[in-house]
Amino acid sequence: METKKVTFKIRRFNPKKDEKPYYEDYTIDVPKGMTILEALQYIKDNIDPTLSFRAFCRSAICGSCSVKINGYPKLACKTQVFNELEIYNTDTLIIEPLDNMEVIRDLIVNWDSAFERMEKMNPYLIPDPEVVPETLDEESKVYPRELKKFDKFTDCILCTSCYSMCGIVRINSNYGGPFPFARVYRFAVDPRDSLKKERAKVGYAFDMWNCVRCNKCADVCPKHIAPVDGILKLRGLSIEVGLKDNPGARHVMAFYKSLLDSGMLNEVLLPLRAKGLKGVIENLSLGIKLILKGRAHSPFMKPIKEHETLLKVMKVAMEVE
């Protein structure tokens, strides 16, 4: 069996005795097929019994073994050591705890902050009495076309990988976070839920418009859920229920109005429509530069030649969604 000598540079920290985190190297012979979790377990069993990490199911279901491998959150139980060596073209892997959460010890983080945010957002079904029977004698049916809207979001295993990569979570204590927002959207489009689109108000209250759509949450999700998709759709629902008094919502509506008016983005009116007079002042210097260079168009734009066709496409797209 093929083997390689691999060095695991593991971030260690015991708050009871360490002043600050440090890295410790462990070099072992790794057979092909060994996972990161198996390597950590080997180190604990044979080299250093004080090494601490979290793992339960070993089947990529519980999400508890998520750690950073060379800077990216991954499930240790499903990540092959050889694959990571090939990706980074190295014989050394850096293993660290997830970000945005307090480190309890070594690779174990405290999930409380993430789950407490989610708990405040009521991420569970609130039955609609007109849809969900009061007794267990009847079924509450969900048809395939209905399930398709939220099916992928039910695959979330709460590993907090997306949460650890979110920069907005790091700087905004009120921001709900990727997987909590995805969970809110999941119930907002569930036909059995009594709140339905009104759940968008929860996303609004927890600053979902602060998402910068960096897609890091989608990149690291081990179940390929892409929480950012849920956030964007939840934003759309918030506009539908009338929550438009927000720069982000007004920005979306400005784009939409431009397409309705002419089929092109009216960049001259965009700051005014999105942020009012404040937006004009903020973009005044840029606007003057564009005018002087002859790159600013008139705020009064004629419809493009294919405008009618575009409107039909937009209408069909909205009906499909």
From TrEMBL:
Q: Where are the transmembrane segments?
A: none
One annotated GO molecular function is: 4 iron, 4 sulfur cluster binding
The 2Fe-2S ferredoxin-type domain covers which part of the protein? 4-93
Q: Pfam families annotated for this entry?
A: Fer2_3, Fer4_8
* Cofactor: binding details: Binds 1 [4Fe-4S] cluster. Binds 1 [2Fe-2S] cluster.
Keyword Oxidoreductase among record annotations: yes
What are the alphabetically sorted keywords of the record? 2Fe-2S, 3Fe-4S, 4Fe-4S, Iron, Iron-sulfur, Metal-binding, Oxidoreductase, Tricarboxylic acid cycle
Family annotation (PROSITE patterns): 2FE2S_FER_1, 2FE2S_FER_2, 4FE4S_FER_1, 4FE4S_FER_2
Q: Return the InterPro entries for the record.
A: 2Fe-2S_ferredoxin-like_sf, 2Fe-2S_ferredoxin-type, 2Fe2S_fd_BS, 4Fe4S_Fe-S-bd, 4Fe4S_Fe_S_CS, Beta-grasp_dom_sf, Helical_ferredxn, SDH/FRD_Iron-Sulfur
Look up keyword Oxidoreductase and say if it applies: yes
**Domain named 4Fe-4S ferredoxin-type: which ranges?**
202-231
**Names of the cofactor(s):** [4Fe-4S] cluster; [2Fe-2S] cluster; [3Fe-4S] cluster
GO biological process entries: respiratory electron transport chain; tricarboxylic acid cycle
According to its UniProt record, the EC number is 1.3.5.1
Q: Which branch of life, at top level?
A: Bacteria
* Family from the record: Belongs to the succinate dehydrogenase/fumarate reductase iron-sulfur protein family.
Q: What is this protein called?
A: Fumarate reductase iron-sulfur subunit
Provide the species name.
Desulfurobacterium thermolithotrophum (strain DSM 11699 / BSA)
